[in-house]
Amino acid sequence: MTIRVLLADDQTLVRAAFAMLVESAADMEVVGQAATGREALELARKERADLVVMDIRMPDLDGIEATRLIAADEDLAGVRVLVLTTYDTDEHIVEALRAGASGFLVKDTRPAELLDAIRTVAAGEALLSPGPTARLIARFLRSPSTPAVGGPEGLSEREREVLTLVARGLNNTEIAEALGLSPLTAKTHVSRIMGKLGARDRAQLVIVAYESGLVTPGTM
């Protein structure tokens, strides 16, 4: 199945470079390009892209607010957002995750890694750049805010264990190995946790784990 990609960045050359890269992949196509967050929102509604590659800093409507509006639109429930940023210490990344982004990467990511990230996020998984993730959470995630989803109070002990491992960056196979489960059982636990917490994806599970204190900075 071809992944329909919408590119949102206010720099024309950056969009052109990303478009060439995406179009070079046999399983992807660019269905639109936006120079502002508002254009990204309009094109997401018009083109029904599977995934939006979203810059954070854009005029008219920034990438965070555009992400929030996309995530809140029931008609765009299947649209995923992958945030790209120039600086891996940008506090807005966490805001983007709270707004509903399924992951982020820094713009100097290698081309092959960006294509893999698009495939991962389009498949419904979360993707967080491993290097800056812990630093960003440590600096910004514990700041006062309104939680985007519910807390872990209603989870079983096993589900809390799984949530902790998700927050530490483990995939389903790694969670299964750590807890002596089958990969399918681990996947089922993760899906059930997302359902109980009303989380859009694994990125929001990470936020829940840190905001609730289930995992604290420094324990990654």
Automatic annotation (TrEMBL):
Keywords: DNA-binding, Phosphoprotein, Transcription, Transcription regulation. SUPFAM superfamilies: C-terminal effector domain of the bipartite response regulators, CheY-like. It comes from the Bacteria. InterPro entries: CheY-like_superfamily (IPR011006), NreC/VraR/RcsB-like_REC (IPR058245), Sig_transdc_resp-reg_C-effctor (IPR016032), Sig_transdc_resp-reg_receiver (IPR001789), Tscrpt_reg_LuxR_C (IPR000792), WalR-like (IPR039420). Pfam families: GerE (PF00196), Response_reg (PF00072). GO terms for molecular function: DNA binding. The modification 4-aspartylphosphate is found at D55. Residues 148-213 form the HTH luxR-type domain. GO terms for biological process: phosphorelay signal transduction system; regulation of DNA-templated transcription. Residues 4-122 form the Response regulatory domain. PANTHER family: TRANSCRIPTIONAL REGULATORY PROTEIN NARL-RELATED, TWO-COMPONENT RESPONSE REGULATOR. This is Two-component system response regulator.
